[in-house]
């Protein structure tokens, strides 16, 4: 065991263990960056499409991920 953290779902434990093992099984087919969590890869892939579906309500600048928009909004 790596730490004493407990999880209700086995899948959450598997995902957490990757923090300790540095395993990143989800690889981007375009740039070969790797991620520990599939949803992070999915969000990353959107950066390659050019689609920017997340718009800042203050300045109308658009972003490809909600996380990028959240970081940007903190600057306002």
UniProtKB/TrEMBL annotation:
Subcellular location: Nucleus
Broad class of where this protein is predominantly found: nucleus
Gene3D superfamilies tied to this protein: Classic Zinc Finger
GO molecular function: DNA-binding transcription factor activity, RNA polymerase II-specific; RNA polymerase II cis-regulatory region sequence-specific DNA binding; zinc ion binding
Pfam (any one): C2CH-3rd_BIRD-IDD
Keywords, ordered alphabetically: Metal-binding, Nucleus, Repeat, Transcription, Transcription regulation, Zinc, Zinc-finger
Ranges of residues in domain C2H2-type: 1-25, 26-53, 54-76
The protein's name in its UniProt record: ZN236 protein
Organism listed in the record: Thalassarche chlororhynchos
Biological classification of the source: Eukaryota, Metazoa, Chordata, Craniata, Vertebrata
